[in-house]
Design brief:
With 235 residues, the chain is an alpha/beta fold. The protein contains eight helices and ten strands. It has two domains: 109 residues, 3-Layer(aba) Sandwich (Cobalt-precorrin-4 Transmethylase, domain 1); 107 residues, Tetrapyrrole methylase, C-terminal domain (Methyltransferase, Cobalt-precorrin-4 Transmethylase, Domain 2), CATH 3.30.950. Strand 6, helix 6 and strand 7 form a beta-alpha-beta unit. Helix 7 runs antiparallel to helix 8. The longest helix is centred in the N-terminal third of the chain and has 13 residues. The protein is elongated, with a radius of gyration of 20 Å. It binds S-adenosylmethionine.
């Protein structure tokens, strides 16, 4: 175990392209005493792709186990361990487990750092062509239609771009509900399979984007962005 002073490092991992894994991220993983990750099989595979050999303790860190493990892991850090936290893909603690461990470390005065990298929401915002000066990121919407409609109603007069994650099973329902609340002229972007082979970024009014998404494959991962009220693509 490293006795130079323990710390927690949040390590961002690729969201679709292995080339996006940074040298600093790899260095942190190789130096880890403990690797906490959602699915150890997914993270081991990532290391295997990069031909990395690590001699670390692996711990499965999921939403269900987060409460208990935040304590265990922060105790290991207090004793000098280099702990790395990884999500299956993207940035830990962003629509993924992590914040409780960070909070536990802060409350014990332990060092927390990160090797920043891919995040689907920020990437989608940057390539969307929608205003990026003010935005609200809301993660996944509730699965129930009534709750989704309520959320969209709250965003009707928004002065910011709204960013949300959506699953392939609900992408059409999500856009249909958005049409119901925002109307056909509201500008949106649907970003699918970012950084992957079938990356598709579709920006336009809901009236044009919804039929395009319906016509194309709905497999894969999606970020949906909704422009602020009154935003026009080609003023
Ligand atoms: N922590 C991750 C991050 O930093 O982006 C997000 C994890 S969240 C559990 C997974 C969701 O992120 C997916 O359901 C999808 O909405 C979005 N996502 C992840 N990878 C994506 C990609 N390559 N293209 C589009 N959306 C993606």
């Amino acid at each position: 175990m490293n006795t130079a002073g323990g710390k927690l490092t949040l390590v961002a991992t690729p969201i679709g392209n292995l080339g996006d894994w940074s040298p600093r991220a790899i260095e942190a993983v190789c130096a880890a005493d403990v690797i906490a990750c959602e699915d150890t099989r997914v993270s081991r595979k990532l290391l295997h792709h990069k031909e990395l050999q690590v001699d670390a303790e692996w711990i499965s860190y999921r939403e269900e186990t987060e409460h208990a493990l935040a304590n265990t892991l922060s105790e290991k850090i207090a004793q000098g361990a280099q702990v790395v936290l990884m999500a299956d893909a993207g940035t830990p603690a962003i629509s993924d487990p992590g914040f409780r461990l960070v909070r536990a470390c802060h409350s014990r005065g332990l060092k927390v750092t990160a090797t920043p990298g891919p995040n689907a929401a920020i990437l989608a915002l940057s390539v969307s062509g929608l205003p990026s000066d003010r935005f609200l990121f809301t993660g996944f919407l509730p699965p129930k239609k009534a709750a989704r409609l309520r959320f969209f109603s709250e965003q009707l007069n928004a002065e910011h771009t709204t960013i949300l994650y959506e699953s392939c099973h609900r992408i059409l329902k999500c856009l249909e509900d958005a049409l119901e609340i925002f109307g056909p002229a509201r500008c949106v972007c649907v970003a699918r399979e970012l950084t992957k082979l079938h990356e598709t970024i579709t920006t336009g009014s809901l009236a044009t984007v919804l039929p395009l998404v319906k016509k194309s494959s709905q497999k894969g991962e999606f970020v949906v962005l909704i422009a602020k009220l009154g935003y026009e693509l080609n003023p």
